């Protein structure tokens, strides 16, 4: 039985958005407007993954001052937090659109469930799968660049083409799984939940070292 007549995003549309944004001039420093609340958060997740990817590269440098690496690590923490926040928003919106969670409680830590009896619980959420698709897009983008390098030999480009083909297959497999989960959720056969990350290390109320700093200041 179908719970509600909702229009769900196709994984192919999400993959296309990820690739299009990675090819856009100014990305990820500039974020273009996205149509609709769900797409805004899908795009925000991808932007923070893109910024995080760049900082991870910078953090591996070995010929710069330690202060620069420390700045990279702090930026990584911030982008990772924002990426997870966006993932949670994607899950909240999808669950409401599917009619599986009461809208007024969706953003709380105790959302009111409207799950039909017998629906299986999927351990991975739709939002986390979209987050993984974003990371896969970054991997595909970076590996494709390796296949086009002119400062390396053909053996490097050939090995990169093999890796690119494997990455594309892995991304397609994940996209197919996302489509299947959303179809099953719409039909009342499956459900997922918003799993709060509760990143304690970023919270001065919970990180024991930040608590110590607060008491000594």
Descriptive report:
With 217 residues, the protein is an all-alpha fold. It has one domain. The chain has helices at 11-23, 37-59, 66-97, 126-147, 154-186, 208-216; strands at residues 120-121, 190-191. The protein has a two-stranded parallel sheet. α4 packs antiparallel against α5. The longest helix is centred in the last third of the chain and has 33 residues, at 154-186. The radius of gyration is 20 Å and the shape is flat. Residues 1-5 have low confidence and may be disordered.
What secondary-structure arrangement, pairings included, does this model have?
Elements: H1 11-23, H2 37-59, H3 66-97, E1 120-121, H4 126-147, H5 154-186, E2 190-191, H6 208-216
Quick take:
With 217 residues, the chain is mainly alpha-helical.
Helix tally equals 6
Strand order of the largest sheet: 1-2
The best one-word shape is flat
Number of domains: 1
Major sheet details? 2 strands, parallel
């Amino acid at each position: 039985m179908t719970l509600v007549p909702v229009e769900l995003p196709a994984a192919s549309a999400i993959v296309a958005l990820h690739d299009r944004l990675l090819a856009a001039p100014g990305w990820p420093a500039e974020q273009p407007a996205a149509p609709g609340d769900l797409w805004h958060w899908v795009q925000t997740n991808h932007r923070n993954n893109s910024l995080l990817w760049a900082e991870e590269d910078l953090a591996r440098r070995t010929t710069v001052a330690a202060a620069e690496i420390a700045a990279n690590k702090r930026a990584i923490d911030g982008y990772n937090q924002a990426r997870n926040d966006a993932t949670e928003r994607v899950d909240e919106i999808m669950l409401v659109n599917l009619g599986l969670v009461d809208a007024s409680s969706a953003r709380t830590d105790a959302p009111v469930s409207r799950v039909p009896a017998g629906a299986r619980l999927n351990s991975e959420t739709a939002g986390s799968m979209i987050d993984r698709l974003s990371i896969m897009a970054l991997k595909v983008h970076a590996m494709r660049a390796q296949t086009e390098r002119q400062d390396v030999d053909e053996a490097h480009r050939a090995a990169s083409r093999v890796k690119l083909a494997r990455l594309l297959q892995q991304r397609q497999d994940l996209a197919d799984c996302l489509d299947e989960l959303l179809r099953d959720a719409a039909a009342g056969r499956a459900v997922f939940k918003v799993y709060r990350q509760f990143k304690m290390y970023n919270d001065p109320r919970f990180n024991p070292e930040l608590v110590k700093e607060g008491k000594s200041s």
